[in-house]
Amino acid sequence: MINQPTIKTEPVTAEVQCSIRPSFRVAQVAGMFDLPQQEVSHESFSVELPVKDGPWQIGIIVGPSGSGKSTIARHRFADSYVHQQPWPADQAIIDGLGNHPIKKLYSTLTSVGLSSPPVWLKPYQVLSGGEQFRANLARALLSKKSTIVFDEFTSTVDRTSAQIGSAAIAKAIRRESSSRKFIAVTCHYDVIPWLEPDWVVDMADQSFTRRCLRRPQIELEFCRAKPAIWAQFARHHYLNAKHLPVAQFYVALFNQQPVAVVALVGLWGKKGHKRVARVVVLPDYQGIGIGSRTLDHVCSLEKANGFGLHLTAAHPGILQHCKSSPLWQTKKVYRGSQKKRQFKNGKEVKSALGRQVASFQYVGPAYA
Q: Which tens digit of pLDDT belongs to each residue from 335-354?
């Protein structure tokens, strides 16, 4: 049994009122429906909310439209409210995230599931709804606020993107210091188990509930795939979308839909060994470990077939996984330069310019 932290609460009341200018039409409607004419419109919302410095990290205020969730959130957490500022129309999103070190920028983007560098170089306006949602989350995380209140959470994305995105932001928040807090304000109840909040305020009945939820299991199926599968993933690859005619493809399926792909090719000059040439996860499913799970599983299958598996990568997400996983052994770490490398086929290929590159070998178990 999991021990839930003791979260102290306190009553919060928010009132909203504004004057009503009298008019002929107002008088008409009041007369037609026998309604009293008011000079001031008044609404009051009362609910229990956790103390701000309590032992919690993630909360959610949920309820139907008009239930007062935004009013309560603004009243209680005025200094923490995230106001969505417009993004520059002619700048890449990497330039719209504020003045932060590049390592901080790409680690934050990766943490919320926006892990494709080509997307970082696009303006906000051309991104998909799911990508815009994650870009807004990244900008919120990069703020100096110790508590982030994000209104209209997942309101502009489809429900799959909403659920996976909720899991990604929960993972990112809990990975930070325990003092960082995040509050989602939304009308969508389906994100609650994916966000795994410490507490839930439901404005439909103005109730407060302590939660210790487990995220729904993401069950993946893995199978071999024909080379044609690459067409669904090519434009999402972070370096090169070029088709590999001799590659062997594995695909991960979630709810019978392809969500990730791994491509393997023979390791030149080393018989009985293969290298991982491509690892791609569709944008709506990034940020929750699907790519690393697929990579590890495919390598375990191929090791059971008697092959050695190798990987050279520069993507920060893959580097972080392989360096921290006991399934992978680091063979070499270096930084790319402008020096050209000559291959036997006569082609010259420039290595990565200034970014960290690492080579790994799979040393995990073999699963048939």
A: 755 444 444 444 444 444 45
